[in-house]
């Protein structure tokens, strides 16, 4: 399940099956698409094109693995959220491709499945060396965008600490394969960290935040130079993490709880804590995370929607995997379309709120594209990212501030984490 681990026990929380959504975006765009928005102004476009745009969370790898999707081919009819053509149209400079392992289906095989997903990203980079490059450092991101032939800096982020199967050696191996952040939990509490997704579920064994091993995970990530991602974690896990980490943290795809009361979002206290840590919060585009009316309406359908999707799953339990995948996907999109998409203003409000509470140096973009089935109007793919620049420009943000929000803040945090890693890896005699 995508956004919460136990939808039947948590009807107030919208639940989305990430594997389903990956196929949903392949099958087509939401039936609730609004009319074509007005063109982006020349001034906004010029600012946008001069920036290094970084999106810290896209779920395109599941499309690659489950559908054989070639990111170098633009699908017909505007299907999907990300491909190389639309990445160029939106001037996307770098993207963290999510390595997400469904915790129930792959129980006991988390690491193996993660390796399969990682392989799908490496394969895409190898297939399109003229347009993509595997980025392993902050310098690699900048280098990918230099010169005439700008390439998409392709990075990896493991979503959910269960993927390491309680083994720091696996964590190090992930780093060697190019993983540059790990979300400590997904919507499921693991053996060493509590999640926001099941924190009220009394059948789940919780730890009151991080365990001792969880603290070791954070310390090893600091040593490696792997960004510590606090999206999805419980509030207690969040604050425990900030007590341990020596490097700035990121929230790769989270929004503001003050505006949309969802446990996946961050309170103002948490936003201020991230700022004090020198970290950055990357705003998620999912409609239920940025619009409270959408969240409530979608949650109100939870029981009926869950029964309908279970019926589709039962009907296709003996079908071939692709057919089953697509049937479940189509049903999910149809249910998502029952709730009108919020306006673009919803995402802009969250960016603006975080900038005001935490500071403009501590906010960025983490779309969750190809892993969500509803985004605000006007955000149908990465090609639409300039609309965010235009909307923020209209609110008075300067060129310098926009460059920070669009990618500069994440790049700074990445550099700071690399500096901490160099210090921790240096011999004790030269450590400060």
Percent helix range = 40-55%
Number of discrete helical segments:
17
How many DSSP E strands?
9
If you consult CATH, what is the topology?
TIM Barrel
CATH 2nd-level architecture = Alpha-Beta Barrel
Q: Stretches where pLDDT falls below 50 for ≥5 residues?
A: 3-14, 16-34
Please give the domain count.
Answer: 1
Distance between the termini: 44 Å
The helix-strand sequence is HHEHHEHEHEHEHEHEHEHHHHHEHH
Strand content: 5-15%
What class do helices, strands and sheet pairing give?
alpha/beta
Give Rg in angstroms. 20 Å
Shape: globular
Mean pLDDT, rounded to whole units?
90
Task: Find the CATH superfamily.
Answer: Metal-dependent hydrolases
Major sheet size, sense and barrel closure: 9 strands, parallel
Q: For this structure, what is the CATH class?
A: Alpha Beta
Folded structure, characterized:
The protein is an alpha/beta fold. The chain has a single domain (18-430), classed as Metal-dependent hydrolases (TIM Barrel, Alpha-Beta Barrel), CATH 3.20.20. Helices cover 44% and strands 10% of the residues. It has 17 helices and 9 strands. It has helices spanning 18-27, 42-49, 60-67, 84-89, 110-127, 138-144, 168-176, 212-224, 235-244, 268-276, 287-290, 292-300, 302-315, 321-336, 345-357, 385-394, 399-425; strands spanning 53-58, 92-100, 132-134, 152-159, 179-183, 227-229, 249-251, 280-283, 363-365. Strands 1, 2, 3, 4, 5, 6, 7, 8 and 9 form a 9-stranded parallel sheet that branches. Strand 7, helix 10 and strand 8 form a beta-alpha-beta unit. The model is unreliable at 3-14 and 16-34 (pLDDT under 50).
